[in-house]
Amino acid sequence: MIKVKSVNKQSLIDFEDSLFMLVESVDKFDSGKALYVDAIIVNSSNPEDYNRIFKAVRTHYDPDVYLTPIFAVAYKTLPYLQENACDGITDLAKYEQLAKRVRDIKENMGQLYLQQQYANSEEGYLYKLLQFLFTRDTSFAPIPSRHSRVNYYFPLLSDLLNDADDHTAMDILDAGIKKGYLSEGKMFDKVHLCDNCGSAHHNLRETCKNCGSVDLEIRDLVHHFKCAYVGPETDFIQEHSDDLMCPKCHKILRHIGNDYDKPSHIYVCNTCDDPFQDPGFTYHCMDCRDSKDIHHLNEHRIKNLYLTTKGKYLVLNGLPKKIEKKSGLATDVLGIYDLGIFQSLLKQEQARCTVTEGSSVLGEVHLTDPGMNVLSRREMQILQGELSMTLKTYLNEFEMVTSVNPYCYYFLLINPDDERIEKIKDVIEYNIQNLIKSNVDKSEIEVEVDMKPISEIGEDFEF
Ligand SMILES: [Zn+2]
Ligand SMILES: [Zn+2]
Ligand SMILES: [Zn+2]
Questions:
Q1: Separation CA 412–CA 286 (nearest Å)
Q2: Measured in angstroms, how far is the CA atom of residue 248 from the centroid of ligand 2?
């Protein structure tokens, strides 16, 4: 049953167990009220209304507000951007689809770790984006926008940033990829940004390499077969006749194809009269009015992005806490080491592999389990110790394990073959799941094991 009531001049629609706020006038819109509803429906065909609502909702400090689903009423005139930046469209008659989408998003929101503090605003923006992607369970897709300084709207990020900072959005996305929270999907466009101000709004022009003027004319080149003379068509034009006459042999050119042809064209500069075949190309920035050779434009690739397991792990568990001095690691056992020692041994093994063409592999184990969050510190330490001991039992005597925190473990396999890699991966996933299920009440454990050849691990790898 649909019930419509009005609270604070904002219509509310109650469908099954979802409460929608219907926004018809942006002037009365108060983003804080989103706390009390499950989703917002915008009934407007004016793109500006959507932009204001996106901005108000997405910049709110409370995740229950900034992650609120926003739907659009399907107007034919609603631009592509606004329609696609919403969580879906509706015709104000059928609510089943919407209610289902809202339930899915709300359920995902319920699983998020409540992160309160960020080292800086960029880290905060990236973190919010990862939360957004997790709750929507979709890939990240930049949307073309003629109103953006870089020609693209980046969902959530563009609302958090000012227009002039749109290139910051690309830096934030690059940081997310570098840290392994986002993976790259299909590359579908490129933008070329002004070297001086980062804008993508510029005119490209053919330019005289001699004097820098853009006042050029294109003229056909004429090639007279008989005498092999080649020159601009203007050389052949006569003052008192429409016939073309060769300036070298003074014959009249009659039939194109038989007497002569036009093999290409030539530029002539109206400022310095220089003729040339290849002009330079310059850009004129519409924002800062800078003018430079196009080689100075900075190319950025526009692509779809996906939330990785590591990114999902982050939003479910929060940003890494400082590594605790007193970990539960049983470092008196041979092959179990503190992170610092493990990192040194890994570097040494990398050097050894380079010389001996070894194929050693770094294993990465991530756990996500809301049930683990209620354990005491002491219980966490015990679990961390148990898990690292368990991991060590699958390794050879000369292989090693470390743990960054109770949710994250690394191990090193020396020259394993593919069969062993697969087998260890399966065994670890299966056994760690069981171990946690039998130790943690109401466990919803998920175990992810990634294997990476250590030759692919760079200097800046973050543990
Ligand atoms: Zn010139
Ligand atoms: Zn001729
Ligand atoms: Zn510029």
A1: 54
A2: 5
Q: 211 C-alpha vs ligand 1 centroid, how far in Å? A: 4
Ligand nearest to the CA of 260: 2
Lowest mean pLDDT among 163-172, 240-249, 445-454: 163-172
Contact (CB, 8 A) for 183 and 279: no
Rounded to whole angstroms, the Cα distance separating 385 from 334 reads 14
In this predicted structure, what is the pLDDT of residue 1? 46
Asked whether 200 and 192 are in contact (CB, 8 A), the reply is yes
Whether 5 has a pLDDT exceeding 60, the answer reads no
287: left (phi over 0), alpha (psi -120 to 50) or beta: alpha
Q: How far is the CA of 272 from the centre of ligand 2 (A)?
A: 27
How far is ligand 1, taken at its centre, from the CA of residue 191, in Å?
A: 29
C-alpha of residue 230 to centroid of ligand 1, in Å: 22
Delimit the domains of the chain by residue range.
Answer: 1-110, 209-278, 320-456
Q: What spacing in Å lies between the alpha carbon of 266 and ligand 2's midpoint?
A: 19
The ligand that comes nearest to the alpha carbon of residue 202 is: 3
pLDDT tens digits for 18-65?
Answer: 999 999 888 888 888 888 999 999 999 999 999 999 999 999 999 999
Architecture of domain 1-110: 2-Layer Sandwich (3.30)
Contact status, residue 304 vs residue 185, Cβ threshold 8 Å: yes
Q: Which ligand is nearest to the CA of 212?
A: 1
Look-up of token digits 């493990």: 342
- For 202-221, the pLDDT digits (tens) are 999 999 999 999 999 999 99
Class of CATH domain 320-456 = alpha beta
Q: Which ligand is nearest to the CA of 200?
A: 3
Give the separation between CA 152 and CA 148, rounded to whole angstroms: 6
Nearest ligand to the CA atom of 292: 3
Torsion of CA 185, 187, 191, 196, to 10 degrees: 50
